Amino acid sequence: NAGVTQTPKFQVLKTGQSMTLQCAQDMNHEYMSWYRQDPGMGLRLIHYSVGAGITDQGEVPNGYNVSRSTTEDFPLRLLSAAPSQTSVYFCASSALQGARNSPLHFGNGTRLTVT
Amino acid sequence: DAKTTQPNSMESNEEEPVHLPCNHSTISGTDYIHWYRQLPSQGPEYVIHGLTSNVNNRMASLAIAEDRKSSTLILHRATLRDAAVYYCILRYSGSNYKLTFGKGTLLTVNP
Fold first, then answer.
1. CA of A98: how far to CAs of A112, B45, B95, in Å?
2. Nearest to A48 among B93, B97, B104 (CB)
3. What angle do CA A108, A43, B110 make, to 5 degrees?
4. Do A58 and A113 touch, CB atoms closer than 8 A?
5. Residues B65-110: pLDDT tens digits?
6. pLDDT (tens digit per residue) in B11-37
7. Rounded to a whole number, what is the distance in Å from the CA of A94 to chain B's nearest CA?
8. SS3 A80
9. By the CB < 8 Å criterion, does B81 face chain A?
10. Which of B42, B43, B49 has its CB closest to that of A103?
């Protein structure tokens, strides 16, 4: 059982480049979300989705795009990378039915450096 | 939105119990209390959750105050592998899916 899989594990980008961070889950979870974690800042919510075709913004959405075409996948796109986006990115998922009573499952993260 | 407050850091000795506190004074009646921990260089992992009653599982126990304004995660015998950042969050009712994590409590376990 793979759970939540994030790729790549590490990425270095130059300012202005674009890339997509991939997140896939095999638990048929409706809820998926992206967080970024900076030193001393805890986890901050970027975007989330409650099902295919439905996405919404979190605390820090600027500079990031998301889409949800399938239940399994929730990619995060950086259209024009900036040094301020250097961070560790985590994807998480959970069941939506009874969401309050459902644990969040996290991936192992993507460490992104923008130079 | 209800928020949680945790101490920045705590220290414990190996084999001793650890009590990690969390305040959530604005919790609503249907919010669940969840605890997660993050080991170094890993993603957060689920530890335990509860609504009103105390809860136990193989990893820890969760003690919830009668007024639900605070809770305590209890590690019965700390090991070096329990050294991590522990997060207490609230999972809300209704359609509020913006789950917020604070900075958590950094637990250091001394051998």
1. 33, 19, 11
2. B97
3. 75
4. no
5. 999 999 999 999 999 999 999 999 998 766 667 788 888 999 999 9
6. 999 999 999 999 999 888 888 999 999
7. 11
8. coil
9. no
10. B49
